[in-house]
What we know:
By secondary structure, the protein is an alpha+beta fold. It has one domain: Peptide Deformylase (Alpha-Beta Complex), CATH 3.90.45. The chain is built from 3 helices and 7 strands, in the order H-E-E-E-E-E-E-E-H-H. Strands 1-2-3-6-7 form a 5-stranded antiparallel sheet. Strands 4-5 form a two-stranded antiparallel sheet. Strand 6 (110-116) and strand 7 form a beta hairpin. The longest helix has 22 residues, at 153-174. It is globular. The mean pLDDT is 96. The site of zinc ion has 5 residues, from helix 2.
Amino acid sequence: xxxxxxxxxxxxxxxxxxxxxxxxxxxxxxxxxxxxxxxxxxxxxxxxxxxxxxxxxxxxxxxxxxxxxxxxxxxxxxxxxxxxxxxxxxxxxxxxxxxxxxxxxxxxxxxxxxxxxxxxxxxxxxxxxxxxxxxxxxxxxxxxxxxxxxxxxxxxxxxxxxxxxxxxxxxxxxx
Length: 175
Ligand code: ZN
């Protein structure tokens, strides 16, 4: 396993639409998911899409366990999503590709998802609460959409500027 670099805005790759994984969940895909999980834990974050480490495939990892709970990694290959309600709720979201920026996004509170798990088995389940928020946020990454795209143009520009400024400071410190 290895920790990979996480792309941050305004990297144009984050706008790419990811492609389906062909040929099922192979060892190569499992190795990618292992790296993604390690990268996510190190960040730390609760969800990561493959495009965030520059791999444009429809693969997501997630772990919603609380700090005092056992790790509970989840893996989603070629996930499909269907909102189950028109009820929406706001949730303050963040993203490893937009570090240090948090803002409220409204999303449906319940959705059905279908995907292949780590072993390549097809799973169908209903997501609610934080799981519903997180899977919709990660699914958006597969379409090249970031949570800041739901904000006003001004807030979005401010978010990108903040990340760019932090990156420049980091580069200066490293030099
Ligand atoms: Zn994200």
